[in-house]
Amino acid sequence: MSNKRPLNFLCVTTYHKGADFIKSCKAEGNNVYLLTKKKLEHEVWPWEAIDDVFYVDNWNQNDVTKGIAYKFRTIKFDRFVALDDFDVEKVALLREHFRMPGMGRTTSHYFRDKLAMRTKAQVEGINVPEFTALFHDVDINAYADRVSPPWLLKPRLEASATGIRKINSREELWQIIDVLKDERDNYLIEKFAPGDVYHVDSLIVDSKVVFARASKYLDTPFEVAHGGGVFRSATCEIGSKIDKALTKMNAEVMKAFGMQLGASHTEFIASKETGELFFLETSSRVGGANLAEMVEFASGINLWGEWARIESATLRKETYTLPKVKNQHAGIVVSLSKFENPDTSSFNDPEIVWKMDKKWHIGMIVVSDSSDRVMELLDNYTQRIASDFHASIPAPDKSL
Questions:
Q1: What torsion, rounded to 10 degrees, do the Cα atoms 224, 229, 234, 237 define?
Q2: C-beta of residue 190 within 8 angstroms of C-beta of residue 118
Q3: Is the dihedral angle over the CA atoms 284, 287, 292, 294 positive or is it negative?
Q4: CA distances (Å), origin 285, targets 19, 181, 257
Q5: Which of 33, 91, 178, 371 is deepest in the core (most CB within 10 A)?
Q6: Prediction pTM value
Q7: Exposed, middle or buried by CB within 10 Å (0-12, 13-18, 19+), for 13?
C-alpha cells in the first residue's frame, strides 16, 4: 500500500454508522475525513482510522458546500461517500458542485425517492405494485376505480417503514390527502398485496453485480414497526429457485437504475396469490438492522469493508477482486427488551455467532450449513424472546 498516493475520502453521515467502511478505507492506504453532526461527536467512531472530523449542527446545503470549499483549499478531496440513506441526495449535490466522480442527483433519486424508483422500474419493464402519485385529483380517483384497496401510503423520501400507512377505502384515502394538504406531493400510494418480502444485499463494480445474497424477512419491517413484533430475517437457501430469481431481478434493477459501483440493499415482494416477484425499493448503501452482519457471517463478505475497497480500487484504476465467498446460511432475530441489559446466557447453541450489545435490546445471529436448522433456531428463539423479553413501542408516524 505504501507506494500508492493516499486518496482523500470525505465520508458523510448524519447517523452513527459506517465504521467498517472507514476502517477498510484507511487500511487501503487512504486519508479519511468524516463529516457528521455535532451531536454524534461522542459516539464510538473508529478514531484511529479518521484523519480529521468536521461537524455541523444542522445541515444547511449551502453552508456545508461553503465549508467543504474552504477545506478544499488545503485538502484535495478525491471522493465523497454517503454512508446513510438520508445523506445520498445531499452528497449527490456536493458531487455536482465540486464535479466529483460518482452518483449525481438524477441517479441518486432512483435510490432515495420511492416515486422515482417505481416510475423508472415501470419504464424499464420491471414488475412493481400498481401505484400513483398524489399530484392530480383525477389520476387519484382513476387509480381508486382501477385498483381495489387496501393501499399503502408511502412517503417518497423516508427510509425503511417510517411513515407508511395502510388505507382501506377511497373515503379514508381522501381524508388522509386532506390532512396532508400541501405535503401530499411528497407521498404516493401503491397496491398492498400480501406476500413474502425479501431483500438482496449486493456489491457492484463497473456496473455489474459481483456479489449478491438474497434473504427473506420473516417478519417485515412494516409489520415490526406497526405491530410491535420481533424482527427476523434469514438468508435464502443457496441455489434455490427463489434465490436465483431474486438475484436475477436485483441485477436488472441495478442496471436499469444506472448503479456503477458500491453497495446496495434492495427489497422485493413475492405475491402470496400468484408467486410473482415485484420490486419494492432500493438504496445505494449497506442494509441496516444488523443485516450486514448476518450477510457477513453467512458469506464471509463484509459489505461495508468491500464497498470501501471498491471505491478505492476504482479511483486508482485498479482491478477489484472479491474475497472468497462462503455459502453458509444465517438468520437474525432482534427485539426491544423489557430489560435494560437482558441476560442471554440461556441462548447457548453453538450456531450462535453474534449477540446484540445494546441496552433495552436483545438479538442474535445464527449460522449453519443447513437453512432448515437456521429456521428451527429462529422459531425457537422468537418464541422465547416474545415470552420472556419482548417489549414494544408505537411506530413513529411522520405522515400525519
A1: -100
A2: yes
A3: negative
A4: 13, 32, 14
A5: 91
A6: 0.90
A7: buried
245 CB neighbour count, 10 Å cutoff: 18
260/247 Cα distance (integer angstroms) = 17
Cα(5)–Cα(3) distance, integer angstroms: 7
- Write out the chain's pLDDT in tens, 400 residues: 445 679 999 999 999 999 999 999 999 999 999 999 999 999 999 999 999 999 999 999 999 999 999 999 999 999 999 999 889 989 999 999 999 988 888 888 889 899 999 999 999 999 999 999 999 999 999 999 999 999 999 999 876 666 889 999 999 999 999 999 999 999 999 999 889 999 999 999 999 999 999 999 997 666 665 556 789 999 999 999 999 999 999 999 999 999 999 999 999 999 998 999 999 999 999 998 899 999 999 999 999 999 999 999 999 999 999 999 999 999 999 999 999 999 999 999 999 999 999 999 999 999 999 999 999 999 999 999 988 998 766 555 544 5
Amino acid identity, position 341: N
Nearest by Cα to 294 from 347, 333, 240: 333
Burial of 111 per CB tally in 10 Å (0-12, 13-18, 19+): buried
Maximum pairwise Cα distance, the chain:
67
Backbone φ and ψ of 304, nearest 5°: -65, -50
Give the number of other Cβ atoms within 10 Å of residue 3's Cβ.
5
- Helix, strand, coil tally for the chain in percent (to 5): 35, 25, 35
**Using CA atoms, how far apart are residues 26 and 9, in angstroms rounded to an integer?**
9
Query: Alpha-carbon distance 324 to 357, whole Å?
Result: 29
Q: What DSSP letter does each residue of 170-189 carry, written as one string?
A: HHHHHHHHHHHGGGGGGEEE
- Smallest CA-to-CA distance from 127 within 229, 36, 302, 253 is with 253
| Three-state DSSP state, 392 | coil
